[in-house]
Every structure is written in structure tokens, then in C-alpha cells.
């Protein structure tokens, strides 16, 4: 067998394979026996019909076609092993010559693991940025806590203001006639949140309980109800109830109600420590993201369509999951945004390409840095997943599969190589305040991307680097 390879676009390889005529002859003989065993030919016992009789029943050229199909398949697998290739998908095959008595020649174009050419990923000129924790930030959290424990009290001595809680009644008409959805006896709302038509609530400002007002308003062109888009309506509205939010005072009693705090000063000190902790965590994550962006921008890689297409599917499933958590069906979302799945996929594609490039570049950086993940660590993550996702069979089947284990292995490897780069930068810059790693690897399986990868049965793009030619040929 003679095999030549030629680079093709988008990280593909074209193989041209030539097999001697003797091998095609043997394949024809084997195809004849195989077809004879499963074809009923009148006057012949199963497996005994000669080729000429088989082709009278099955059609001219059937035996040769069967022989070529089987021979091309087996020869392609042999060529992949010989050339040490890792195919990412089945090949596109073109049979160039298939005549008995002559060599069989075919071409196979197959996407392969992309070559990543790293640029610089260490000599960046940026530093971790730790946001300072000052009294103003502590005050902001105190105010948020107070807001969460606020009570509502009737408004006295003034009219409605933005932020007040109101109950209103209203009647809307178009050309003097009420319209569907334009009337309510008791509608609760927070003035200023624009729960109704934009501009509606500003007409309530200044009104007291029992006060009424009338006004015209034009529905926006993007209003959800199509029949009202751009339409003008007349409303009469009455304020039935009006309450304001009353925050508890920021004092020692409030602090003691928040937990085991002796006074307000103790609560403030605890909040300050938490804010400082969060600032360090954010600084490390932000620094990691900038390192990833730097390494990716300096690297060169030609992305195979199959990996990008797979990532698009993962992103689409992530969207469906997010919609499901909000109680929105994919069909309702598609109608609201007026886009087909194909249009959504086209929008996803640039981000999918960037995500795939990041995964491949980080895998190559990990290889350059000698970062490996012991199988025991992968198994520990699978065990952790069993305790966390035992009630989700689909997700567990994925994590326990080879694809799922590759996902875990690649994710651990990427995380660890970035942490390695951060720790080494900090060691080289002792003047910089320490920013310890405040999370562990357990967080990797909490990412919704894992569930979406399981939903589409995705192979981690970087995991193909660990595959062997023999394993790929046997898939």
C-alpha cells in the first residue's frame, strides 16, 4: 500500500492511497462469498452462487462496489495508523480508480487534530489588580442588608415617588373602546420599574391614595403584543394603595440581628474581611482571564469546522438550559427574537470559534509546561460527581464515559496550568501582595457547560491531543 499525504484547509489532511491490484482481487473474492451467503439465488444453496448469478439478481457491478467499499474502509484505517493521524470525523472519500486488474486508488480528506503554534504566553506587561476595600464599600453592603430587612409603611403627607409600592386600578381604551389586557382593578407595582407600558408610571408620581389621573400613551414598536405596537391608547388610573420602604437603622441592634455580632463595628469588620477576600478572588480570576486572552491572541491555530460546530451545539444547549430555568420554552424564545436555529447558530459561531481556540491553546500551553493530570485525580472527580449528580443519570453516564473523563481531564489540566503561571509570576514578583488560590478543582463540574457537553455528547476539543491513532482508527 502506498500512502501520500497533502495538507488541506481547516486542519484537514488529504490521503491518497494506492492498493495493488492483487488486493482488490482478494477483496472481490471475499465480497462474492459474503454476498452469496446472504442472497437467495434460485437453484443454488446459500453461499454457493457464482458471481455471475449474484449480479443477475443484485445488479451489474454490485460485487465490485461491495469489494471497493470494504477495501477503502480497511485501507483508510491502516493509512491513519501508518501516518500517525488522529481523525476527528469520518473522511470524505473519492474513489479515483476502481477497475479489476488495476490498482485501487482513492483519496480521503479527513479533519485532524489542529496544530497549535504558541506565541509568547509569559512575558505579559500587566499585573493583578486588587480593588481596594474602603468604608464606602462596607456602607454599601450595610445598606443592601438594611434593604433586605426593610418593611413597608403607608405613605403619609406626600404624593407617590419613584420606588414606592403602589396598588392601582386603570382602564385603557383605543378609539373609545376598551382593549384586551388594558384594564385592571388592583395592579401591584413598584413605581419606576416600568412594569407596564414605558412612561405609564411617571404619570402616577405625585398622586396620593384615592387620586386619579388620565393620560395618553403610545406603545413602543417592540411591544410584545403585536396588535398594540406603535398604537396610541388613553388611560385613566387611580391610586388605591401607596406604601414606602422603611429601612431599619444601622445600629448595634441591627448588627446583632444579622448574626453573632456584638455591635455594628463587629459586623462592619466581618464585612470588610469578606470584601477583601472577594477582592483577592476576583483579582486572581481576572488575572487568569487576561493571561488566557494574552496566550490565545499570540497563538496561531486553524480550527476544524467539526470542533466549532460541536461548540455551537454546546452553546445552543446552554441557552436552552438558561431559558428552562426561567420557564421559557425554546419555541417561545425563537418567536420572541424572530430567529431560526440556523440564525442562532450563525450568531454563536464567532464566540464558539474563540472558545475552541482558547481550549486548544491552553492544552498546548499545558503540554509545553509539562502539566499532567493523574488518572487518580480524574477518578476522584468522577466520584465527586456521583455524590453531586447521582439523581441525573444522563450527566453521570457522560462523566463515567471516556468522553466525559476526557472533559474532566482537560478541564483540570487547563485550570492547573493557568494556576501554575499565576503562582510562578507571583514568585517572580515578591513585591506584589499575595493573591492565594481561593477555590479548588471541585468547581469545574459545577459549570453549566458540563451539562451542555453531556447533552450533546461533546468531546472536549483539547482532549483529542490525548488520543492515539490506533484508538481513533478503532472508533
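-> sequence recovered:
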Amino acid at each position: 500500500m502506498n500512502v501520500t499525504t497533502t495538507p488541506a484547509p481547516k486542519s484537514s489532511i488529504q490521503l491518497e492511497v494506492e492498493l495493488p491490484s492483487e488486493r482488490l482481487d482478494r477483496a472481490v473474492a471475499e465480497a462474492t462469498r459474503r454476498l452469496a451467503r446472504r442472497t437467495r439465488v434460485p437453484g443454488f444453496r446459500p453461499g454457493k452462487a457464482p458471481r455471475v448469478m449474484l449480479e443477475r439478481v443484485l445488479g451489474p457491478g454490485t460485487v465490485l462496489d461491495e469489494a471497493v467499499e470494504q477495501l477503502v474502509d480497511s485501507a483508510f484505517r491502516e493509512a491513519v495508523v501508518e501516518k500517525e493521524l488522529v481523525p476527528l470525523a469520518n473522511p470524505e472519500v473519492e474513489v479515483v480508480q476502481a477497475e479489476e486488474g488495476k490498482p485501487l486508488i482513492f483519496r480521503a480528506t479527513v479533519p485532524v487534530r489542529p496544530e497549535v503554534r504558541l506565541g509568547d504566553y509569559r512575558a505579559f506587561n500587566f499585573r493583578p489588580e486588587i480593588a481596594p476595600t474602603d468604608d464606602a464599600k462596607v456602607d454599601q453592603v450595610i445598606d443592601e442588608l438594611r434593604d433586605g430587612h426593610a418593611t413597608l409603611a403607608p405613605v403619609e403627607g406626600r404624593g407617590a415617588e419613584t420606588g414606592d409600592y403602589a396598588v392601582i386600578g386603570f382602564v385603557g381604551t383605543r378609539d373609545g373602546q376598551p382593549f384586551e389586557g388594558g384594564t385592571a382593578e388592583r395592579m401591584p407595582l413598584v413605581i419606576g420599574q416600568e412594569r407596564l407600558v414605558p412612561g405609564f408610571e411617571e404619570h402616577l408620581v405625585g398622586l396620593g391614595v384615592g387620586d386619579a389621573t388620565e393620560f395618553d400613551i403610545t406603545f413602543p414598536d417592540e411591544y410584545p403584543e403585536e396588535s398594540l405596537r406603535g398604537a396610541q391608547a388613553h388611560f385613566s388610573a387611580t391610586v388605591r394603595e401607596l406604601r414606602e420602604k422603611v429601612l431599619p437603622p444601622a445600629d448595634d441592634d441591627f448588627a446583632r440581628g444579622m448574626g453573632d455580632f456584638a455591635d455594628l463595628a463587629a459586623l462592619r469588620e466581618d464585612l470588610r474581611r469578606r470584601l477583601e477576600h472577594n477582592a483577592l478572588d476576583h483579582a486572581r480570576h481576572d488575572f487568569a482571564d487576561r493571561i488566557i486572552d494574552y496566550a490565545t491572541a499570540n497563538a496561531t491555530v486553524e480550527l476544524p469546522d467539526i470542533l466549532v460546530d460541536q461548540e455551537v451545539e454546546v452553546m445552543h444547549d446552554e441557552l436552552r438550559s438558561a431559558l428552562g430555568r426561567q420557564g421559557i420554552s425554546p419555541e417561545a424564545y425563537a418567536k420572541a427574537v424572530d430567529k431560526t436555529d440556523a440564525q442562532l447558530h450563525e450568531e454563536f459561531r464567532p464566540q464558539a470559534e474563540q472558545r475552541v481556540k482558547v481550549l486548544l491553546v491552553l492544552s498546548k500551553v499545558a503540554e509545553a509546561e509539562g502539566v499532567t493530570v493523574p488518572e487518580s485525580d480524574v477518578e476522584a472527580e468522577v466520584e465527586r460527581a456521583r455524590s453531586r449528580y447521582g439523581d441525573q443519570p444522563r450527566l453521570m453516564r457522560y462523566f463515567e464515559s471516556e468522553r466525559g473523563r476526557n472533559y474532566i481531564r482537560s478541564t483540570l489540566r487547563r485550570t492547573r496550568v493557568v494556576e501554575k503561571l499565576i503562582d510562578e509570576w507571583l514568585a517572580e514578583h515578591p513585591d506584589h501582595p499575595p493573591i492565594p488560590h481561593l477555590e479548588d478543582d471541585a468547581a469545574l463540574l459545577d459549570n453549566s457547560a458540563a451539562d451542555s457537553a453531556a447533552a450533546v455528547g461533546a468531546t472536549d476539543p483539547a482532549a483529542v491531543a490525548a488520543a492515539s491513532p490506533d484508538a481513533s482508527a478503532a472508533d
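The CA atoms of residues 123 and 213 lie 66 Å apart.
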